[in-house]
What does this fold into?
Amino acid sequence: IVSCDASLVYRGMNIGTAKPLPDELSRVPHHLIDVQSPSEPYDIVTYIRDAEAAVVDIFARGKSVLVTGGSGFYLKSFLAPVIDLVKVSDAVRQEVATLYDAGGLPTLLMELRRRSPEGLGHLDVQNPRRVLRALERCIASGKALPELQAEFAARPEPYGDYTKHLIVLDRDPENLKQRVAHRAELMLAAGLIEEVEGLLQEGIRDNPSAASAIGYRETIAYLDGELKRAELLPAIVQNTLHLVKKQRTWFRTQIRRPDERVVM
It folds into this structure.
């Protein structure tokens, strides 16, 4: 099993991620679980590298690969290119960040259009993060955005020599809503607050990706005095439901049509 969950990679993030229990992990080898300190970032580039190594290892042993998890972007990396080959230096990142601090999104778009006079292609110009990344890549490569987009679109499909069977597990929306609420209750009863207290001592604040994971960010807010205890459970449930909606959209628009859909 190769996990494609962005939070399961972190050691100590167990309750809030519903990480498989030790007896479950012992039934079959699991990859990309508990591979990173919660204080250290883990990004898509690192994930792709580690996933490729896991897939090669599994097939070398004559076994099949089961990729499973809820992080859509990580899953997409098995089905289509998700990163380009442009290397962005810290100096370029700082240059773009300074532009953003000085003039916000309009200033970034002005500079991006100056560098790409023929247009911005399919870029979501309302998304500051995507505009930031696009401008960084234009500066780093010296190329216009449409040229970079064309190069990206021409990249080969990952794992193109492998047979892939995509199965999507789904649930009735009302049933899923009830399960979300029940799971949040179980998380708190199992000691989520104490788990987060320990993670804070390990430096989880130094890693925004981990600290902002649902269940963790709300608990950190509670421990910081920003939420009352009675507000913690509703906040986790509400934010989880928002994520559910976002994931449904992602799987509908960003992942290819599944070979099989199972309603549970």
Summary: DSSP finds eleven helices and four strands in the chain. Strands lie at 2-3, 67-68, 167-170, 260-263. The CA atoms of residues 181 and 234 lie 8 Å apart.
